[in-house]
Amino acid sequence: MRAKNLFFIMILSAIAFCSCTREEKPFTLPPAGSTLSESLTLGENYDSVIYFRLSDAHIETYALNTWDIAFENTVTGYGIYINGGNEIQVGNSRQTSWELPVDAGSIKWKWDNPNGDRDSSAFGKWQDSTEGIYIIDLGIKAAERYIKFRIITNTENSYTFMYAPISSGNPETVTINKSGNKGLLYYSFAKKSTVSCSPERNGWDIILTRYRHIYYNLNPITPYYVVGGLSNRDQGISIAKISNKPFESISKDDAFTATYSSSANTIGFEWKYFNLTQSKYVINSNITYLIKDASGDIYKLHFTDFYNIKGVKGSPCFDYQKL
Known about the structure:
- The protein is mainly beta.
- It has two domains: 36-63 and 201-322, no CATH class; 68-195, no CATH class.
- The chain is 8% helix and 37% strand.
- The chain has two helices and 20 strands.
- The chain has helices at 2-20, 252-257, and strands spanning 36-39, 48-53, 58-63, 69-72, 80-82, 89-92, 134-137, 146-154, 158-165, 172-177, 184-188, 193-195, 206-215, 222-231, 238-242, 272-275, 280-283, 288-292, 298-307, 313-322.
- It has a five-stranded antiparallel β-sheet, with no helix packed on it.
- A hairpin with a 6-residue loop joins β9 (158-165) and β10 (172-177).
- It is globular, with a radius of gyration of 27 Å.
- Mean pLDDT is 90; it is low at 1-30.
């Protein structure tokens, strides 16, 4: 009788165990996307700027020379950037009086670091300077090449600044409201107004454009015009560079173990180089970029050409795939 009872208890225990445990199903990663190809046109002279979003291949194109300076569009923001691709540069006059004359030839020019850090821009932490009159060089094509510029106030709601041609003592005062859903507020001195020349904050992941690369290791520090890719720091885009594995072989495992950077110029311009023998740009085919977008999705991307089907430069072509 005792043996029968023991057997009966074992049967009940087994039933109870089965009813309290859930079958474990193997975890399956979502399938990778198809490899897609894109060809963008900056123009032979790189006159256009192209914004690209990976998730839906959204493209917006603007003229490079539309703007001169741009202001960070956040409540606590203070960053000011210059259009280096359009040859803009800036320097502090080291003067406190607007009325004093300024010799542009004596200015020590500065340029934005393309890493996108607001404190590494040409204006940097301008609010900490007691010598707040800057000289902006708009380039040789501008009707008025040199202008005086001074920030008057920066509040949660707006920027107010004054400016005038270096030869004139009569400044204009401008207030730009912090509003809308764009990362930067762009201003054109020629148009004397703000201008629209970018998508909204979440409208892009990378930009293909002409910009200045700064060689800080040279003496003196030397700016150099390049054409390359910059990423959307405002949306937290981060990028890793892989150069020891073919594009086709890069997998999710590689993406999960890669080291990512939030620097805007991680893509940069070194995916191509100028071959003197061939007298043309050649793609560095061993370089692949892993791009983590604002949603956390990761894409692999590599460039395949810098010329269109007619052989005209200024047309970056690339393949990309969601991992």
